[in-house]
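Lab notebook page, bench 4
Experiment: in silico fold of construct C2
Operator: M.H.
Input chain length: 359 residues
Purpose: comparison with the prior construct
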Amino acid sequence: MQIYEIVKKRPAISELIHEIHAAQSDGRGEFDAGLFPSWRENRTFFYSRPDQNIFCSLSVAFVLMHLEEDLEERERRVCQEIRENVVAALPKFESLKGKDTYNFWKTRPSKHFPKGYFMHRFRHFQLPDDVDDTALAFSVMRAPEAQISALKEKLKLHCAPDSKVYDTWFGKDMPKENDFCALCNLMCLLLGASEVLNAYDLATLAFINEGISSNSFLSEPFWLSRNYGNTALIVYHFARLWAMHRPAQLETGRKYLLSRQTELLASAQTLWAKMLLQIGFMKLGGEPHGAFDEMQPFQQEAKPYFFVASLFAPLGKKWTNALAEKEWTWINWVCPALSLALKVEYEIWRKRSLQKQLP
């Protein structure tokens, strides 16, 4: 098929967007209004629970809001309604101390590990607010620059004493942790503000670049990003940050990834990973490798996940670390609507890349 014919035959983007919209809860089921159904699962132990979190819904809205310029007016209005519905759900996840940070789970009242039988009974498993949900919330609500500036001051207070790299958690009792993908989401927000980059911003960008150029994204993806856990998601988040702001501090990492594009795609074990890598490489300036028309069933492929939790990782012992990085010990979060949003993102970026090849 000629390139012109591929571009002319538009993928079913509109149908995908309307399917996402239809999945958003209106509050009459077990999920609150504005949230997208998601589940936390561990297939090894036949564990599956419906999970009311804001992360998955924010992620759907974040992906779609950055695709609006490529959509038709009707599709754009649907995406805006999706975003507005998610924003309306945010107050239930706000910090109990004010509207400056957000939690993965509901805070009013606390609903950690919802629908569970054990962990929700203990405060030990209650998470503090985090930079990932906060950054996504600020982005999706389009927070004013004054609010972002105040957040940066708060971020400085929670860094490890010997580091200027922003930390994952706002709590006092959590071990210090630099999560690569969460920091990419944070820098997507901070680089969008007009403030001059400070020493903490530059240290965080250096950490992100080093995670790629040092090959850590391949050799130890879990320890580089403990809440995402795999190479494809790391590449995707790096590329999302670079495509949004093109910071010069990430240029070394970008070139290194593009130099390994063919190898990484060939070694990807699942269609889901291939799609994430394809999106990433197109955002970094690479070309699409093959069509994904035959990859429609990827959603049924081992329930693709976008977020993980290892209960052993925070313990910090040698034997717990050995268990922490084993995928069979993880709790995975799956969200069908997020899978569809990423499919929309792939189709749009593929169309962009193919249009560039037109004579």
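Observations: Confidence is low (pLDDT under 50) at residues 1-10, 116-122, 291-297. Strands lie at 39-42, 47-50, 307-309, 331-334.
Next step: discuss at group meeting.
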